[in-house]
# Entry
Amino acid sequence: MDLKNFNKKSGRLVRRWATFGRESIEFDYFLPNPLPDMKEFCNNISIMEKSNEANRAIGELQGLTKNIGNIDLFTDPYMRKEAVDSSEIEGTYVSLTDVFLSEAGSKKPEFTNPNVREVVNFVHSIGYALEQLKSKKKIDKELLNTMHKFLLNDVRGKEKLVGKFRQQQNWIKSKGATKDILDADFIPPSEEKVEELMKYLFDYINEKDGFMRLIKAGLVHYLFETIHPYEDGNGRVGRTLILLYLIKSQILEEPILYLSPYFKKHKEVYYSLLMEVREKGNYDKWIKFFLEGVTEMAINTSKKVKKLIDLYEEYKQRLKKVNATQISISLLDKFFESPYWFISQLQGELGGENYPKTKRGMKYLVETNIIREFTQYKRNKIFVAPDILKILEEDLI
# Structure
């Protein structure tokens, strides 16, 4: 952390001593200021134009999703895609197929590796938070801490303090840097300041919103990542916090907009602009980048949803032409929720339908080239919908 880069506009450096192992080290951590008043952005024509553009893109996405009968057909797989992309930013690499297969119950070793478990945990963490938000209507310490428990349940990082704010100094280092805190790219606030800073952030999140909620979402993400309140998992929780705020503030009605693909695409810029806010107080540059990401991802998601809607209607027409049973349509819905399934799983999902009836429904999906066998086993076959999977796996269209 180059101390001469900090100009005190967004916070100040505080000197402290801390003990690491047997060694006591003196260093400076960054203590952020309160977030700027929204009025400071009103006179910035460029930011207001980008904010309006982002709101229009979200409005178009919202209009599109309102015409979908069962929105879960799209939100469930999107949540898994977000978990894969957000985890990749932190260096955990798995494919979307790995996650779907793991949830389909595959026992193959490559689908039970710890990286897949991390991403599946992340899916559960997001799902829990979204469900809680329906009744809580606010984002607080309890919500984030429980999310954190889900995230690090029995995976790498479980030895850290889980489900609680950190109680020791942490720091952020670049790849290849030493483990020495004096070699850190950034040193967040002291552990003694975390509780106070997070209380400020929760109060800020939950106060009555004005008309500049997207700008506020960008500021919330910046401050969370700057506080870095957990020993591990801050990036993933912080990016999920964007979605939670968008839902809570009613910018989004459904959890269908995620920024991780955009952050992943511009990873170095993402990190450097957060750092530029800390060092130089350049909120404007970060907010512009954030709003551009919202616009790009809203447009991209709209394109994907349209593709999936068109594909869904095409598939229903194929099934209609061959006089497929009604259960075939129900099975089709399940493959839009997740492109990989066992027949036995589908029976349970459809309320315990008998095996011959489910198998007959699957037969129509195979004959119309909607699904195909993924495995060649005689028993416990896995089926995949390849066209659906292809659309979901695309990063940016």
